[in-house]
Amino acid sequence: MSDFAIAALLAATILGASMISVEVGLSVALIELLLGVLVGNAFHLDIPAWLSFLGTFAGIVLTFQAGAEVDVPQFKREWRASLSIGVVSFFAPFAVVGLVCYYALGWNHRQAEIGGLALSTTSLAVVYAVLVETGLNRELVGKRLMSATFVTDIATVVGLTILFVQPTVWVIPFVIVSIALIAGLPHVSPWFFRRFGDRVIEPEIKLVFASLLLLIWLGGRANSQAALPAFILGLAMSNHYAKHRKEQERMRVVSFALLTPFFFLKGGMNVSLGALWANLGILAVLFAAKMVPKFGGVYPLARRLTAPHAAFTTLLMSTGLTFGTITSLYGLNAGIIDRTKFSLLIAVVVLSAIVPTAVAQGFFNPHVKQARATDRGRPLALPEPAGEGART
Amino acid sequence: MPFEYILVAVDGSDPSDRAFEKALELAALTRAKVTALAIEGPLPAYAATVGEVDEVKREKDIFFSALATRARTRAIEMGVELDVELRAGHAAEGISDFAATGGFDLVVLGHRGHFLRDHLLGSTADRVAENAPCPVMIVR
Fold it and tell me: Are the CB atoms for B80 and A154 separated by under 8 Å?
């Protein structure tokens, strides 16, 4: 199939994913991932170079945006509680999954490390959506939880960098440029925004993209990868975006329309349904290896720090999606894991996005518990609905 | 007085607009107080980015703010006392819970909502009729 034929097929798939997402109320990313699985297994396409490039770039853009969406002032207020939950939330499953992969499943140590990292993540986006629906995003419990997911995510990105770097001499300019961008871009951005901003040609977005592409290139030359500096750069820019929400919205439009669909499609296309079917037992083992230490490690802390919603928040901390997918794709692209292991990890990542969330919302939803506990009578002064831009 | 407090579910669809008109007509006859409840609907489940959730929430807030303004204007024209409430979450569950905690005499809603899921999973009206603590009027 020619490149344009593949592009047309994938564009139609992306369009279909968007339509399905609106109708059924599921995340477009999840639909793109699932349709990618269908397309990949139905057509047996080789991933063309342009899709590989777009997918890699989109993964780094996603990592940058994840950093930019962190509420840094909120984290500074709750860092002790968030740090303890976040650290345990990362290390408990990282250790257990890594050990299970190495000793029980016979993976080599680098494969086990990829498995541990991919299945130790917590999805801020999944958590955030649930917190907004229940109104907990405005309460201390929700704010601590969102900050804790940041800790888990940055631990994943740091782990990905430290464990897999095999530095060349290019690591020196990579580190220098990373530091320069992280320190300099937040200071340059206000001037740049005043001088060049608010135009349809979007120079602000191009500035960020140029910076990220530079990091990707240098990271490749250094035998490292750009996820950590991209995340920290996003973190450094979060204050700027908090003051310029329109700029952040426009960047999201570009990402959602053109970049992130190819990331998730590419991820899905690399999943082998045959491999999953042949390894259902291992799938179950890996899922348990993520869930049990997440729950066992986070729940005792949650009882102290996020009461009375300990079970609810523990289940939410057990979710994962974006960084699990990013880590798994890194492992596949770097040749560390094969398609079977990648398929297993992605399947567990997707299950970990769905199952704990469904259980939390179905059985431990604090919104429902409050409604049932309230006396019947005259219309009550119910909580104010979440305002525009929800995050506070 | 047959009804004192009427809850009407609104979502901007044609069926809900008809339900809202019926609720206002009934309230005008019985001098009841009406509460229009808009449930924004679930945010994208299992989202990969906070941005996707934020953008959908922003779009819903704009849509439902406009809906609330239209509802208030129409209620003034009909001479009916109206409160407008906006909640996030799932429609059937949200309406039933709100009706239970608010002590309403009657729930009024359209027979079908906006989306494909209403056709696939059973309408919100059917589920509210099963779970609401008071009479339910479904308007076609």
Answer: no
Length of chain B: 140
Write phi, then psi, for B83 (nearest 5 degrees): -105, 145
| Gap between the Cα atoms of A314 and B115, Å rounded | 32
DSSP class of B13? S
Tokens of A227: 């996820």
The pTM score is 0.83
Task: Report residue B86: phi and psi, to 5°.
Answer: -125, 130
Using CA atoms, how far apart are residues B107 and B135, in angstroms rounded to an integer? 6
pLDDT in tens, A151-165: 999 999 999 988 988
Q: Name the region of A164 (left: φ>0; alpha: ψ -120 to 50; beta: rest).
A: alpha
Q: Is the previous residue joined to A261 through a cis bond, with omega within 30 degrees of 0?
A: no
Report CB contact under 8 Å: A30, B58: no
Inter-chain CB proximity B103 and A23 less than 8 Å: no
B residues 37-66 closer than 8 Å to A (CB): 40-55, 57-58, 61-62
Supply φ then ψ for residue B33, to 5 degrees.
-95, 140
Q: Which of A169, A170, A140 is nearest to A302 (CA)?
A: A140
Structural tokens at position A253: 């439009």
Q: What is the pLDDT of residues A250-289, one digit of tens each?
A: 898 999 999 999 999 999 999 999 999 999 999 999 999 9
Q: Which residue has the tokens 């349709």?
A: A35
CB-based contact A318:A289 (threshold 8 Å): no
Residue A76 neighbours by CB under 8 Å, 6+ apart: none
For residue A14, pLDDT beyond 60: yes
* Residue among B57, B104, B115 whose CB faces A23 most closely: B115
Strand ranges in chain B using DSSP code E only, listed in sequence order: 5-9, 33-39, 82-87, 106-110, 136-139
CB atoms within 10 A of CB A191: 10
The answer to whether residue A257 neighbours chain B at the CB level (below 8 Å) is no
Averaged confidence pLDDT in chain A: 88
Is pLDDT larger for residue A73 or for residue A217? A217
Distance from CA of A104 to the nearest CA of B (A): 30
Q: Is B55's CB within 8 Å of A325's CB?
A: no
Closest CA to A164 of A105, A114, A98: A114
CB A66 within 8 A of CB A124: yes
Omega cis (within 30) before A93: no
